[in-house]
Design a protein that fits this description.
Number of helices: 10
CATH class of the largest domain: Alpha Beta
Strand content: 25-35%
Helix content: 25-40%
CATH superfamily of the largest domain: P-loop containing nucleotide triphosphate hydrolases
Number of domains: 2
Largest sheet: 6 strands, mixed
CATH topology of the largest domain: Rossmann fold
Number of strands: 10
Oligomer: single chain
Radius of gyration: 17 Å
CATH architecture of the largest domain: 3-Layer(aba) Sandwich
Bound molecules: adenosine-5'-triphosphate, magnesium ion
Order of helices and strands: EEEHEEHEHHHHEHEHEEHH
């Protein structure tokens, strides 16, 4: 599937990035292989969202400017690529922090809009699959999205990303605002998607949950990677868990 022999799809090399004069990432390096679930954990302000936004090549002022280092996809630098090319050509999509759905549109319209560049008959299967994964969305297909519960909006945000037919999915705090049961359900759904071949990079405050599901994890602390390892391995390190268990 991947062009590189090591099967590495994403490679972040000594990345420095920031907003104006403020540097938020001070030389971050990590990699993701095809088929993996990798999680980035760390306290508030550590640079997790900044990292995901940099990967997507979203532009300032809301997103960071890369000042040094490189981001490679299948071995080639994507620093000069625009976000829409990242989505359409590379098949990498971000579910941003805080959902970003269109409140005045229905669930179905939101899903259809996410796939607006594709022919309608091609998207039918994806719609069915998303409704299969999230039966609540199916029940509420004609409901205005701003009247959905927080958890349902989160499901819709993930559904929208899946409508782009991505092969690499980045998620920024997918469990935010979800009750514990729905949180587990969300991560179980992510695991299921992963088993079907989707590569996932997930940023999470709930480190325990993320590390339980992830193949590997990286710990970010004020713009630097301070620890890395297998999900279970990091879970078993008490100093990591006490520092980054989250509030
Ligand atoms: N648009 C922006 N303009 C200026 N500074 C920003 C901007 N966005 C983030 N920052 C700063 O960059 C640093 C990293 O923020 P980032 O949002 O990446 O953290 P995070 O790890 O996602 O935190 P959280 O867990 O709270 O979401 C913080 O110090 C933050 O104040
Ligand atoms: Mg964040």
């Amino acid at each position: 599937m991947s062009g590189s022999p090591s099967n590495t799809v994403l490679e972040v090399v000594d990345l420095k990035a920031g907003y104006g004069k403020i540097e938020a990432l001070h030389g971050v390096s990590f990699h993701v292989k095809r088929g993996e679930i990798v999680t980035l954990i760390g306290a508030n302000g550590a640079g997790k969202s900044t990292t995901l936004k940099a990967l997507m090549r979203l532009t300032p002022p809301e997103s960071p400017t890369v000042t040094e280092g490189d981001i490679r996809f299948d071995g080639a630098s994507i620093l000069n690529m625009d976000a829409h090319v990242v989505v359409d050509k590379l098949g990498m999509t971000l579910v941003p922090e805080g959902r970003r759905i269109f409140g005045n549109l229905t669930v179905l319209e939101n899903l259809q809009l996410a796939a607006w560049t594709r022919r309608k008959q091609d998207t039918r299967q994806d719609l069915d699959r998303i409704f299969d994964l999230f039966p609540r969305l199916s029940e509420r297909a004609r409901q205005r999205s701003d009247t959905l519960s927080g958890g349902e909006q989160q499901m819709l945000a993930v559904g929208r990303a899946l409508m782009t037919q991505c092969s690499v999915l980045l998620l920024d705090e997918p469990s935010m605002g979800l009750a514990p049961l729905l949180m587990y359900e969300m991560f179980r759904t992510l695991k299921q998607l992963n088993e079907e071949g989707l590569t996932i990079v997930v940023v999470e405050q709930n480190a325990r949950l993320a590390l339980t599901v992830a193949d590997r994890g990286y710990v970010l602390d004020t713009g630097q990677i301070v620890a890395e390892g297998g999900g279970k391995e990091l879970l078993a390190r008490p100093e990591i868990m006490s520092a980054y268990l989250g509030a």
